[in-house]
Amino acid sequence: MTAEVLVVHCVDTEGPLGGDARRLPDGSPEFFETWDDILVSLRELTAPDQRRRFADSFGDAYRFNWFIMDFTGFATNPKCRVAAYHDTWDHITRLPVEADGLYWHYHVPPASGIGDQWSDTWLSSNECNTILARRLIERGSFPAAFRAGGTIEDEAASRWLEQTIPLDYSNRVSERSRPDADLHHFDWYGAPAVWGSYHPALGNPMRRGSLSRFIYRSIDLRSRYNELTQEHVDDCFREARDSDAPRVLSFFSHDNRDMRPETHHVVDLLRTAEERASVPWRSCTAIDAHRRYHDLDDEHLELSLERDDRSCVIRANGAPFQRTPFVAARLEDGRIARLYAAALEPSVWRVSLGGGRVSEIAVAVTSSNGAVSIATVG
Amino acid sequence: MLRVCADRPLLCPVLIDELIDAYAELDEPDYLSNNLPPSYPDGLDLELMRTECLLLAHDESRDPYEREHVTPFLYRRPDRFRLAGLICPFGNYSHVRLALDTPDDYERLSALVTRLPEAYDYRDILTAVVLAG
C-alpha cells in the first residue's frame, strides 16, 4: 500500500429543475431549468481538453461519477422535472463519459405521491424495484454504487441496499452534522467520519457493524448546508501520508447547478493539498477507488441462465455480494417488474415463473469488488 | 420463544432462520418481529421474544386486547422492553394478504399455491404476487 488520495467526484444527476423550485434573491432561477442549459455546463466539463486541464497527479484525465435519478413514482410534479424512465440516463450517456462511473441516485416517493416531497422511509414506495428493473432490461445496466436522495437513509433503505448494491456513497457526516437535524438536513450525525468506508450495522446504518456493503463518506462540495474546505482536503492528504496508505476523498455536486466553478475550485484545493503533503491524488470512479482502497482485483463473476416455462435457474461461478441476484422481467402484459430468486444451493438460484407470462428475463449480480455481471434470456 | 399464529399457512422456514440470525446481530432484544414496522406480506409475520418477558406479560396484563393477542403488552411498551424489527429486504409488501381467516382468503391462497413450486420460500411467494399483477 502506498499513500495516495483517491478522489471520487459524485454528481447527483437529476435533470432540469423548474416550476416552484427555489429562486435567487433577484428572482432569477437558482437551478438549470432545461436540458440545454445543463448540457452547456456538462459538455464543457466532460470535454477531453477540459478533463486534461484538471488532470490528476498521474497525468490522467479528470473523471466524474454520475449517480443518475429517474423522477418516477410520484403523482405530482411541482418542479416540472422530466417524469420519465431513462431520460436522465440517456442525456448523460450521450456525453463523452466512457471513463466515468455510471451509478444510481434515488429519491423515495412519499406515500402521498407529492413530487419533491421526499420520504423519510424507504417503505413508502416500491418504485426502486421498478426503476432498476427497467434500467437492467431496457438499458442493460445495473449500478454497483448508490447515493441516497437527500442523503436520507433509514433502516428500511439499509436492508434493501444490503440485498442489492455493494457501494454506498451516502455518508454525509461532517463537523456541521447535528443530532437534531430534520429530514432536509439529514446529515449522518454520529456516522464514522472516515476518509474511506465502513460496514454498517443491522438496525442502524450509521453505526459500524457486520453487514456486507461498504458505506463511503461523501460530503457537500458546495451547497447551502456545507462546503468542502481546504482543511478537509488537507486532513485527508495528511492522513494518507501519515498512514502510508490510500484514503478516499469523495464529494458531491448536482447537474442542475452550474458545476463549472466548483469543479475548478476543488481541483485547486486538491493541487494545494498535494503540494503541502507531498501525496499524489488520483481521479477515480467509485468502483476504482473502492478497489484501490481495499486492494481488490477486478474479477467478474460468470453467470448462466436456464429457462423453461416453470422456472429460470441462475448459476454463478462464485458467491456474489447479493444473497440472491437482482432479477428483472418483461412480462407479456407489457409490464417490467422485479422478480425474486430463491436459493437452491450455494451460487445457484431459481426464479419460479408459475407457468409463463414472462417474455424476457435479465439477471444482475455484483462482486464485492464492484464488478457487475449481467445475463439475459428470452 | 418463537411465536407463529395458526392462520399463516405459508409459514416460511427461511424467514425463521433470518429472524434468528438477526436476533443475535441485534444484541438479543426482548422482542423481535418482522412486522415492526410491517413490510413483509400479512401472513408471513413472526415474533421472537424472551420467555421471561412473555411470562411478565401474562402476570401483569389486565387489558383484554393484550391478553387475547398475546404480544401487544411487549410491543406497546418500548420504554420498558427493548424492541427490534426486521424489515423485508425487497421493498414493502405489507399490502399483500396471505393470512387465512375467511373463505375469500382460502380461495385466493389456493390459487396462489398452484403457482408455487413444491419447495418454495417467501421469494417465490413475492414473485407469484408480482406476476399475478
Task: Walk me through this protein's architecture.
The complex is a heterodimer of chains A (378) and B (133). Chain A is α/β, with parallel strands linked by helices. Chain A has 2 domains: 5-294, TIM Barrel (Alpha-Beta Barrel), CATH 3.20.20; 303-377, Immunoglobulins (Immunoglobulin-like, Sandwich). Chain A has helices at 35-46, 48-53, 87-93, 127-139, 155-162, 230-243, 259-277, 286-294, and strands at 5-13, 65-68, 101-106, 145-148, 167-171, 197-198, 200-201, 204-208, 214-217, 219-220, 247-254, 281-283, 303-307, 311-316, 326-331, 336-339, 342-345, 348-352, 358-366, 372-377. In chain A, the strands form 4 sheets. In chain A, strands 1, 2, 3, 4, 5, 6, 9, 10, 11 and 12 form a 10-stranded mixed β-sheet that branches. A 4-stranded antiparallel β-sheet of chain A has the order 13-14-18-17, with no helix packed on it. A 4-stranded antiparallel β-sheet of chain A has the order 16-15-19-20, covered by helices on one side. In chain A, α6 (230-243) runs parallel beside α7 (259-277). The longest helix of chain A has 19 residues, at 259-277. The relative contact order of chain A is 0.16. The mean pLDDT of chain A is 95. Chain B is an alpha+beta fold. Chain B has one domain. Chain B contains 6 helices and 4 strands; from the N terminus they run βαββαααβαα. A 4-stranded mixed β-sheet of chain B has the order 1-3-2-4. The longest helix of chain B is centred in the first third of the chain and has 13 residues, at 13-25. The radius of gyration of chain B is 16 Å and the shape is globular. The mean pLDDT of chain B is 96. Chain A binds chain B through residues 122-126, 128-129, 155-156, 159-160, 162-163, 201-203, 209-210, 310-311, 324, 331, 333, 335, 337-343, 350-355, 357-358, and chain B through 14, 22, 25-26, 37, 39, 84-94, 115-117, 120-121, 123-124, 126-128, 130-131, 133.
